[in-house]
Amino acid sequence: MSSNNCIELVSHKLHNLEEIVNNFYENLPKKKTDLSNLNWEQLESLVNDTVQAINNKNSPSAHSNNHVNNTKPVP
């Protein structure tokens, strides 16, 4: 096998892998939940948990120390 063929093969395989990685979240099945059966307390708990998860995800401590975070925390 010539070096050009090897390079083409590796390039093709890498391209396929990049497509899989780039489309990973798009190809995940979407979960649908019917919220109409929840009572007020359950909805409130769901909102609180969701807000806390988002705040934790976006907090400066969630980012690596090598990444400079220029955003201000939400009061």
Structural class: mainly alpha
What global shape is seen? elongated
Q: For the residues shown, what is the average pLDDT?
A: 80
- Which percent band covers the strand fraction? under 5%
Count of alpha and pi helical runs: 2
Order of helices and strands: HH
- Distance from N terminus to C terminus (CA atoms, Å) equals 62 Å
Task: Show unreliable segments.
Answer: 64-73
Total number of strands: 0
Helix percent band: 40-55%
Indicate the radius of gyration in whole angstroms.
Answer: 22 Å
Describe the biggest sheet?
Answer: none
Protein name: 15764_t:CDS:1
Region (Disordered): 55-75
Question: Topology of this protein?
Answer:
Elements: H1 3-22, H2 40-58
Can you put this structure into words, describing what you see?
With 75 residues, the chain is an all-alpha fold. Helices cover 52% and strands 0% of the residues. It has helices at residues 3-22, 40-58. The chain starts with a helix and ends in a 17-residue tail after the last helix. Mean pLDDT is 80; it is low at 64-73. Residues 55-75 are annotated as: Disordered.
Please summarize what this structure is.
With 75 residues, the protein is an all-alpha fold.
Protein traits:
75 residues, mainly alpha, 2 helices, disordered C terminus
